[in-house]
Amino acid sequence: MKKTHLALMAAAAAALLVAPNFLKNYGIYLLSYWLVFIIATMGLNLTVGYAGQKSLGHAAFFGIGAYTVAILMKAGISFWLGLPAAALLCFAVGLALGFPALRVQAIYLAFATLGFNTAVWLLMRNEEWLTGGTFGINNIPRPELAGLSLEGNLAYYYFVLAVAVLLALLLWGLLRSPWGKAFTALRDNPIRAESLGISVRSYTLLSFAIGAAYAGIAGALFASLVQFIEPAPFTVAASIMMYLMVVVGGPGYFWGPVLGAAVGVIVPEWLRDVPGVADWYLPLFGAAVVVLMVWLPDGLLSIPDRIRARREAREASAARSAAAASMGAIT
To answer: In CATH, what number is assigned to the domain containing residue 196?
Structure first.
């Protein structure tokens, strides 16, 4: 790891470890909610930001993970079996969803994944014998770890934080490996990547499958966090919001999901409590996102790169001007 990334990760971990000491119960719950969406958007960032695919169906995997854990726990199966089951099921479904990406690209792929999300949502709503339909599944328990109950918001927060850090480290290792280089090559130029011996088919499928597994784990954690699930959080609108989090944070930036999920989860809650803004926080939030996308289409984390590029351009221009002046003086 680069020293800057190590320092950032250490600082972020330290801040998240001490933050609950300054928050009330709802604040701790909100931080857990934010961490869940960081995990979900880490997977989407791999699919969209690193592999260059278009997906508007991420909330479907999020929902599959949540319902898998909820249904299994209601059947008396441990959370610790339900969690890997959710990840494996989402991996398999994500692998299947990746096949349309082999034939269609760009907006057509986005519509294909959108249709998938709609189909899964309808299944969740209509198959009451399995999902409870619009009544949902309630009283979803939180797990125990080594005899310690995670029922309280603080204990569950630290558990979700540990999972988020572990998955972030796994993703970092993946991106630093030859697989990560293959994903970025696939995004930048699929034809060139194939000419270099990279299997476009395999890595396209893997980008969907791994991204879906991350969403499935996030969904499993979400189910135990809120302790009640129904189809509403897993609509196409939720997928668009997750996509927005990735784009706002910066697609293809490792820290993008952290910042993007903060903008999508924490900022609206903060605006809702600002005096004079409470009745207008959603329109203001939407307008701010539109302005941001016009000004920074590559996301908030592209700001340092833009500043660096402008500085380098000025330095190059000054060097050319100096060279031209010196040539003029010689002649």
So the answer is: 1.10.3470
Residue 5 domain flag? no
Which residues, at least 6 apart from 126, have a Cβ–Cβ distance to it below 8 Å? 133
316/215 same-domain check? no
Mean pLDDT per 10-residue section of the chain, whose length is 331 residues: 67 84 88 95 92 89 96 93 95 89 77 91 92 90 86 92 93 89 82 79 88 96 94 92 90 90 86 72 77 81 84 81 73 60
- What pLDDT does residue 328 have? 67
Q: Quick one: 141 and 157 in the same domain?
A: yes
For residue 195, give the nearest of 181, 185, 204, 187 by alpha carbon.
Answer: 185
Dihedrals φ, ψ of 114, to 5°? -65, -40
Rg, Å, the chain Cα set: 22
Residues 6+ apart with CB under 8 A from 3: none
Q: Are residues 255 and 316 in the same domain?
A: no
Give the pLDDT score at 3: 65
Q: Is the residue at 67 inside a domain?
A: yes
When divided into structural domains, the chain yields a total of 2
Domain extent at residue 77: 12-298
Instruction: Identify the sign of the CA torsion 288, 290, 291, 297.
Output: positive
Helix (H) or strand (E) holding 183: helix 178-188
> Residue 13 CB: number of other CB atoms within 10 A?
14
Cβ neighbors of 331 (< 8 A, separation 6 or more) are: none
